[in-house]
Each structure stands twice: as C-alpha cells, then as structure tokens.
Amino acid sequence: MAFYQKSLVNMRKVGNRNFTRDTYRYLSDYYRKYNLDKTKADEYELAFSRLNDSLEKENRQVIDMALNQILKSKDQESSTKVSKSVRISIIALGLLAVTISFFVWRFKLNRKVLNKKKRLYRRQKQ
What pTM did the predictor assign? Predict the structure, then answer.
C-alpha cells in the first residue's frame, strides 16, 4: 500500500495524469475491498472521478479538433472538386459552342457555294 501512495506522489510530481488516475482507482478499490478506511476510499474515488472527467474532457476536445480539421479538409477538397468540375464544364461548353459555330458557318458557306453553282448552271442552260 505504501508503494502505491509513494508512486502516487511521484506521478503527481512527474505530471503523469493517466497513471495518477489509475492509482487513485486502485487505492480506492483497495480500501473498499479490505474495509480499511471508507473516508480514504471515498477521497481516492473522488480524486479518480475528477481526474478522469478532466482527462475525458481533454480527450473530447482533442477529438473534436481533429474531426474539425478533417471536416475542413474534406470541405476544401470538395470545393476544389466542384470548382474543377465547373471549369471543365465551361471549357466543354465553350468547345461545343465553337464546334457548332464552325458547322453552322460551314453549312452556310456550302449553301452559298451551292447556290452560286446552281445559278451558274442555270445560266449555262439558258
């Protein structure tokens, strides 16, 4: 028992809060199991609960920060994909417009040439 109490003091000095929490739990369970001192058991249980709550809160904050970074990254990635898609669509529509314009121009040119040939042919027939 003295070993655990000394290790608890050392862990507090070092700042190892996970092992400190676990030692509080062990000491609380030990005092309850062997009916040594209910007040000490409650004291260690309360210290365990407070430290455990604090560690869980910090863990949730870290997880929230990590998830927010991941979501922000995914949003940026999604925005990049959307903007790429928009650019590709605009280029494709531009090419389609140029192609259609070319064929319309070509059709009109061919029609003019055909009309000239018809007129020449009619003149030659007369």
Answer: 0.54
